[in-house]
Amino acid sequence: MYMLEVKDVHKSYGNLEVLKGISFSMKKEDTKVIIGTSGTGKSTLLRCINQLDSPDKGEIWLDGEEITKPDIDINRIRQKIGFVFQEFNLFNHLTALRNVSIGLEKVKGIPKEEAQKRAIKELKRVGLKNQAKQYPAQLSGGQKQRVGIARALAMDPTIILFDEPTSALDPELIGDVLDVMKSLAGEVAMLVVTHEMGFARNVADEIIFMEGGIIVESGPPKKMFQNPKKARTKEFLGRISTLYGKD
After folding, report:
1. Is residue 7 included in any domain, yes or no?
2. C-alpha atoms less than 13 angstroms from C-alpha of 70 in its C-beta half-sphere
3. What's this model's pTM, rounded to 2 decimal places?
């Protein structure tokens, strides 16, 4: 049984058709990486999966339940879906510890002391136990993003969506975030929009290449990098590997 199923999802904003029939599935603990040019619908797809935006057509299923039904309890569903944003989206007036624990308290109703123990555990998991009492302004971009990952993990999600988690970071900080993500592979399902080809090559179970609102090609990294079926896939991977590196 698939953990996530995306079936013929379409999404438009006014006259702009952004998603033109996206379908794919994921098993529990899969890591899938979505690549593609800017403006091709990758972030919109994640927002539809998390129901920040509702698809115009199509279905999304999570753990055997259709989450695109009109009467779905979306807050219950969102507890199962972690989301790591490009721009961190931390609460600037809260410490790293509180940024991680507050969702456990407010959403899951876990007592404060227990929530903080869980938050410390997740901050330790991403290498930030010593920064627990620091505020976002005191943290580097890479540390902020790792707090964002700890916050997502603390909710014990079925899947974590990553929307270009390293694109706002200085180059020397990217490795720390990618190392944390690599350590999670096989422990929690991850759907990652990224330009980091080394991560895609070494960690992904499958790479999905999107362009113009459709999936052009998908497959395991070795096949996609060494022997893509579509000329457009080969052209894109060649260009982006030159820009962002192959390792």
Report:
1. no
2. 2
3. 0.94
Cα 145 from Cα 234, distance rounded (Å): 31
Question: Which has more confidence, 4 or 246?
Answer: 4
**Alpha-carbon Rg for the chain in angstroms:** 18
Residues 6 or more apart whose CB falls under 8 angstroms from that of 85 comprise 148, 163, 165
Dump pLDDT digits (tens) for 174-232. Answer: 999 999 999 999 999 999 999 899 999 999 999 999 999 999 999 999 999 999 999 99
Q: Which of 85, 24, 26, 14 is nearest to 56 (CA)?
A: 14
Domain count of the fold of the chain: 1
In a domain, 193, yes or no: no
On whether residue 126 sits in a domain, the answer given is: yes
Domain that holds residue 135: 92-156
Q: Is residue 209 part of a domain?
A: no
CA angle 240, 244, 247 (to 5 degrees): 110
The closest of 39, 46, 53 to 22, measured between CA atoms, is 46
Question: Where does the pLDDT of residue 244 fall: very low under 50, low under 70, confident under 90, or very high at 90 and above?
Answer: low
Between residues 172 and 143, which one has the greater pLDDT?
143
In a 10 Å sphere around its CB, with 0-12 CB exposed, 13-18 middle and 19+ buried, how is residue 222 labelled? exposed
Max CA-CA distance within the chain?
56
Q: According to the model, what pLDDT value does residue 243 have?
A: 60
Looking at residue 242, what is its pLDDT? 64
